[in-house]
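Section 5: illustrative case.
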């Protein structure tokens, strides 16, 4: 591990810890603030769906930019920009209509994330030796989930005690500090000299990316289809369903929802640790098992809201299955991302990462909007929504078995 944690990778990790923590408390507090203020599942689902659309679109630009610009400069600029956006939001809150303001800010933040993440993902193979690539990806995932653990827990306590404003100012400090530190990271970069504009580059580079996938790695298309379906059916349900179940149906506190989302972060951290420690033993062809585990989480969420189940027991079930689902999801993500990176030429890394993020996520906003409506329509029987999602996700999980077997086989071909 000493060879893994060299100067530049260590600084990327530390920068991610700080930046993602600021991001985590924002992603926890802003939607919760909206849900508390409006008490509408449909509006909550619609706003969160709108916020994801820019991430899908800008992740395509992010891949092109990551391959054509200095990745360090991208991270620095976007962290400073995020700090400025949140500072402006804090001054506008209470002076501008809440729903349009929230939609605008969340769309900007998720759009920034769409550009930011491909730059981070494309940086890892450049600063980590090939034999440590899975461990490096596992560490980055652990950092993300550690932030996801601490952010909601601390955010829940702060939100319950002091409201939204302290969270906004803490996040601004995180992004500024992260940007200042990232200035000193050294990531190998060769300047592109073809003279193309960003828009022209997006068009040509993405065409090259899809051509590469179609001609060289058609199995990637099947993987993208599975991820898109799974995000539509299950990920969207969890994103909308967990806050709705804990806050509206079970009537728990802000601290309680923070603990539940913190449990998701802890599950992701556990999954990242396991993936890093057992890198040689995890087989991608068994990835469908991880997806089945995530599907079963929806079954138990449905059980948690049955009338016969006491609210405290239901809350414990939701929190426990959130941990398990995130653990399985992280182990799956690490193994799949490593396989894709191993099969992708370096000059395509940013673009391919962007395509995977964009295409696999494009269905999620649709799912979130639909689930927001479904939770309102089936307000008296929310378990029907969760059980239906579980059945459909299980079907996708079983189908994915043969796809991941092919992907793993191709990753072993030299």
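Designed sequence:
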């Amino acid at each position: 591990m000493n060879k893994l944690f060299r100067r530049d990778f260590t600084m990327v990790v530390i920068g991610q810890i700080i930046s993602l923590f600021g991001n985590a408390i924002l992603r926890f507090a802003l939607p919760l603030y909206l849900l508390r203020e409006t008490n509408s599942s449909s509006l909550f689902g619609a706003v969160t769906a709108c916020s994801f659309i820019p991430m899908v679109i800008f992740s395509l630009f992010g891949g092109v930019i990551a391959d054509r610009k200095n990745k360090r400069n991208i991270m620095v600029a976007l962290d400073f920009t995020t700090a400025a956006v949140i500072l402006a939001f804090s001054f506008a809150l209470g002076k501008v209509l809440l729903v349009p303001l929230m939609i605008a800010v969340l769309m900007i933040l998720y759009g920034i994330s769409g550009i930011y993440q491909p730059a981070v993902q494309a940086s890892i193979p450049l600063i980590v030796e090939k034999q440590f690539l899975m461990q490096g990806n596992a560490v980055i995932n652990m950092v993300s989930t550690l932030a996801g653990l601490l952010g909601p827990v601390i955010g829940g306590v702060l939100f319950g005690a002091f409201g939204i404003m302290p969270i906004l100012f803490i996040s601004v400090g995180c992004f500024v500090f992260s940007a200042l530190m990232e200035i000193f990271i050294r990531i190998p970069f060769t300047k592109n000299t073809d003279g193309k504009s960003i828009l022209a580059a997006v068009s040509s580079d993405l065409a090259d990316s899809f051509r590469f996938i179609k001609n060289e790695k058609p199995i990637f298309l099947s993987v993208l289809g599975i991820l898109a379906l799974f995000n539509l059916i299950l990920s969207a349900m969890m994103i909308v369903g967990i806050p709705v179940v804990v806050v509206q149906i079970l009537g728990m506190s802000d601290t309680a929802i923070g603990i539940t989302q913190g449990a998701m972060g802890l599950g992701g951290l556990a999954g990242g640790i396991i993936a890093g420690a057992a890198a040689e033993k995890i087989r991608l062809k068994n990835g469908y098992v991880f997806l089945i585990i995530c599907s079963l989480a929806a079954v138990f969420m449905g059980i948690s809201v049955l009338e016969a189940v006491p609210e405290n027991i239901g809350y414990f079930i939701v929190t426990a299955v959130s941990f398990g689902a995130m653990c399985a999801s992280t182990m799956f993500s690490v193994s799949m991302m490593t396989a894709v990176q191993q099969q992708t030429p370096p000059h395509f890394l940013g673009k391919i990462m962007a395509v995977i993020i964009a295409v696999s996520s494009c269905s999620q906003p649709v799912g979130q909007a639909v689930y927001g409506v479904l939770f309102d329509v089936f307000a008296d029987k929310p378990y029907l929504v969760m059980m239906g999602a579980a059945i459909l996700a299980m079907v996708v999980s079983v189908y994915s078995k043969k796809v991941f077997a092919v992907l793993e086989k191709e990753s072993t071909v030299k």
